[in-house]
């Protein structure tokens, strides 16, 4: 073979390699959900898997790995091949609340994971039992100040507990907290009048609104929400610091190659614009929320700082 032919042959091999470069993803994507089936995180994950699958040429498989308060699922992501084909769909509890509430962990939520994007946020509502004569947030605050500790609030997770603590600090009141293993049990007891309050999203509480067993008094943040147009915001009731919006998002192992991370962010951005994503967000009553990359890291760190301050004031020690 002449030198010229040899050069052409090498060039042809190079060009054929470029042309044959595999697109990402090149096989099914596994979306690990570190919580059980039928939980809020699971439902939102399955909705987003639909949207994600609509913009890539591969199926998206939802894999529930519940247990150890999310640690089993998180470790499954970290132990998988870090090539972007295994992702974690989680609520903000793992990346934000675990560093605040847990003394020791199997992994570092900040260093071991790379943020892709958030996909949506939910509300937090002050819900009072329907049998209580209190009808407004102003009446609630007045009653709590008149008899500190008499009113009780249920919680079933770090997020619902800290929401209650945040409101107490912001409003200058004192409640007595009552722990539950599951939100369904706590909601049932509040609905029956055994406990007075539950600081939880409107979606979880909505079955009890229809029969009057729960009454929403205020929504966290500065704006009312579409699902509860007659319920005032925290700003409207004079407690603007009661601001909490739990969110959902996607992470991958921090060992994932930067170019794959960038591709995942681009893919997620496209998925969020899809008709399926918009329809599912509306169906679930979620607010669209697309924060990616470094901005998502900043969101995570800002919220960690906020909740560390709340737990310090409440005297809550990491367990």
Automatic annotation (TrEMBL):
InterPro entries the record matches: BUG, Bug_dom1
Signal peptide extent: 1-23
Record keywords, A-Z: Signal
Annotated family: Belongs to the UPF0065 (bug) family.
Family matches, as PANTHER family: BLR1237 PROTEIN, TRICARBOXYLATE-BINDING PROTEIN
Protein's name in the database: Extra-cytoplasmic solute receptor
Organism listed in the record: Acidovorax delafieldii 2AN
